[in-house]
Design goal:
This protein has 13 helices and 15 strands. With 351 residues, it is an alpha+beta fold.
Length: 351
Amino acid sequence: MQKVWTVVDTGLRPADENIAIDQAILRTTGEGLTGPVFRFLHFQECALLGYHQSAAQELDLDFCREQGIEVQRRMTGGGAIIFDPTHLGWEIVCPRDLLPAGDMTRLSEEICEAAVLGLSALGVRAQFRPRNDIEVEGRKLSGTGGILDGKALLFQGTVLVELDIPRMLRVLRVPAEKLDAHAIASVAERVTSLRTLLGKTPAVEEVQSALLSGFREHFGWRMDWSASLPDAVWDRFPEALKTIRSAEWLGVQDRPREELPFRQAVLRTPGGTLRANILWDTFGKRIKQLHFSGDYFIQPRRAVVDLEAALRNAHIQDVDGVVQAWFERGQIDAFGLEPCHFVQVLRQAVA
């Protein structure tokens, strides 16, 4: 008999409570105490680190303290994200064998395609972008990520219903005052929200209903709303919350901020001005985050977004190959910009 998924909305909560619920559900699922769960999450304003990230390196902690922005660590990997009450979180927690076979890459694509189907029902042209993003016409609308813990899977995503780009950049250690107006506008071309796409802010219930319809259609799941999570989850919640609130949890990946400086470079090329802003991992010699901007022309429009994704976490020795492969694979028309120009501006920023 097909298992019925419990659908629950756990309401607006501080980040530590939401992460503790994640931990509690994952453990009870792994122990066979709970069935498959589809949860909607709402966060008070916070900055969420990926599990493998350092708070000092990824975030402007002074700004977070001044603004009362909670800093917390997710159980899943990936990059730091900003959450506020206008964003909607969703996640599935279930035994691994309830989902199609394959590695995490294949599984991410399957789950994201279900979310894409649901978001498209709202009237946006959503599509999956490897490794784990959902985009609309080249602009990111949703990020996702997941983990396996024994036989249990937790996979979660966001939907940007509204978006404050300058504040997002300020929290994520890319201060708006270090970026000119053109650069900030260029960030807006990489990230979007349902409000921007639809010209209005959709009701939360409308977005939730659309997402659920996508998962039902894609996987054929039976899904029933519930007033609350199973009792077994709440029994584990106090212990999980104690763990999540501990200094050890937030500091598990601590590294000094000095190892991840913010660096910039500008290069004049025959194709226009090319600017690179990067967070540079001096310890690992890797580009952790980057953003290209300038007065250049390039086709297809989303090409630079894909290049930024390909270069994220790349070792400096591998930059030439990554850029060259991007040009060849994407059939790029850069109107005078060459692969060597992107490599040169990155090396200048590093130096």
